[in-house]
Amino acid sequence: MIYVSFSYYLFVAALAILYYLLPLRFRWTALLAGSLGFYCWMSPGGLPVFLGTAALSYALGMCLHWLQGGGRGSHEAKSKNWAGGVCLLLGLITAFAPLLAVKWGNVSWAAPLGISFYSLQIAAYLTDIYRGRIAPLQNPLRYLLFVSFFPQIVQGPIPRLEQLGGQLFEGHRFDERTFTKGLHLIIWGFFLKFMIADKAGVVVDAVFDQFPTYQGFFVLIAGVLYSIQLYADFLACVTLSRGAAGLFGVELARNFDRPYRARSIREFWRRWHISLSSWLRDYVYIPLGGNRRGRIAKFINLTVVFAVSGVWHGTGWKFLVWGLLHAFYQIAGELTAPLKKRMYILLRLPEDSFARRLLQTLGTFLWVMLAWIVFRAESLESALAMIRSIFTVYNPWTLFDGSLFTLGLEGKEFFILLLSVMTLWGVETWQEKRCIRDWILEQHLIVRWGIYLAGICLIWIYGTYGFGFGQDFIYGRF
Q: What does the pLDDT read at residue 108?
C-alpha cells in the first residue's frame, strides 16, 4: 500500500524539491538517490540480491556490446556470435534465477522488491543489445537508475531502454502544466483504488473466501466484480506510478487501453497489461517463430507464450491453467471464426452494427471473467467448483432479496460502486476523443480547483479503505 500512503507522498515531494534545485545535468542523480532510498526503505532484505543482479547484468551488457560486430562469415565474427550467445544465456540466467528461486524455492524472506518486473526489464535490455537494437548504458549508475526507477519498479509498466532511458538522464526543467497533469493522475489513481477496487474487493473476498457457502449467482456477481476490481486496482497503481513520474517530467507508458471493450480475446491482450503482452510477443512468441511457420506451429507458440504468462504470475496449477485457458480461447476463436461469421450473416448483424459489437464484447468479457475466477480462487479445484455452480445452482432471487447486501457492502455502498464504475466508463469514453487532463487545464482557475477539491472530498468521504487503511495492490503479489 506504499503508493497510497502519506509517507510516500512526503518522500516524493521532498525528492521533487531536490530534483528541481539541482543543476539540470545532475538531476538524474536525485532520481537515483531517491530510487535507492525507496528500495532500502521498502525492501532492505532484498537489496543485496537486487544490486548483485544489476551489477552482473550491467557487466554482461557491456560484454555483449563488445562482442557485436565483425565481418559476416569471418572466423572472428562466428566466434563472437557464439560467445555472444553464451553471454546472453548467462544474462538471462542472471535475470531469472533469483525470480525462479523466489517463486519456486523457499527464499521469499529475501525477495527483492519488484523482482517479477525488473527481471523482464533486464532480460529485454540484454536481448536488445544482443540483437544490435540498442547500445548499452556506459555509466553503471545510469543503468542502476534505469532498473530501479522507483515509481514503476513495484508493478510496472515494464519499460524498454528506448522508452525510458533518455527521459531519466536528460534532466527536466520545472513545467507547471506537466507537474499538474501528474497530480491529476495521482488523484485519479486514488479514485480507482478506493472508490472501485477496494469497494468491489469487499464482496469478492466474502464470496471467494467463504465458498461453498455462496454459490450460483453469488459467484457470478463476485466474478464480475473481481474482473472490475483487478482492472481498477492494477490501473490505479500504474496511474499512480505515471503520476509520480510525471512530477519529474518523466512519462511512463500506458499499460491499459480499455481492455473490457475488446471484441475478442486476441484484442483483449492487446489492451490488457500492454507492457507484459508486448514483452511476451517480442521475446517469446516471435523468437519461437510467431505465425510464420504455419497454423499448427502458431498454436504451439501461443500455448507456450500463455504458459509462460501463467507461470510468471504465480506458482501452482491454477496460474498455469489460467494461462492455458487464454491460449485455448485464442486458438478456438481462430478456428471458429468462419462459423461465427456465417452466424452473424444469418442473424443479419453487420460488422459495424451496435448489436454485433455488444454481443462480441459481452462474450469476450464472459470468457475473461471465467478465467479470472480461476486466477482468484484459492485452488484450481475451488475454481472449477465455483464455475460449475454458476451453471448448476439457480438462485437469481439473490439479486433482488437483499442477499447481496450481506456481503460487506450496504445498499448505498453498492450504489456508490455502481456510480464509480459508470464514471470510469464515461472517462474512458471521453478519453477516446481528447485528453481530459488537457481539458481540465483549459478551464478557469475556479473550475479547475473545484474539480480537484470535489474529487478529493468524494474519495475521502466515500472511499472504502478496507481493514486498517486500504487493501494491498493485487499485482504487488506477483
A: 61
Cell numbers placing 295: 497454423
d(CA 146, CA 133): 17
CA dist., res. 80 & res. 357, Å (int): 53
CA–CA dist 30, 19 (Å, integer): 6
CB 386 within 8 Å of CB 209: no
pTM: 0.90
Pair 214, 403: CB distance under 8 Å: no
Calpha distance 361→429 (Å, rounded): 15
- Read off the pLDDT of residues 68-93 as tens digits, 9 standing for 90 and up: 764 344 444 444 578 888 899 999 99
Check residue 76 and give its pLDDT.
46
Amino acid at 381: E
Give the pLDDT of residue 467. Answer: 43
Rg (CA), the chain: 24
Instruction: Return all residues near 340 (Cβ < 8 A) that are at least 6 apart.
Output: none
Residues whose CB is less than 8 angstroms from the CB of residue 373 and which lie 6 or more positions away in sequence, other chains included: 219, 223, 226, 383, 386, 387
Low-confidence ranges of the chain (pLDDT < 70): 1, 69-80, 106-110, 465-472, 474-478
What is the torsional sign of CA 26, 31, 37, 40?
negative
Among 396, 394, 397, 400, residue whose Cα is nearest residue 414 = 400
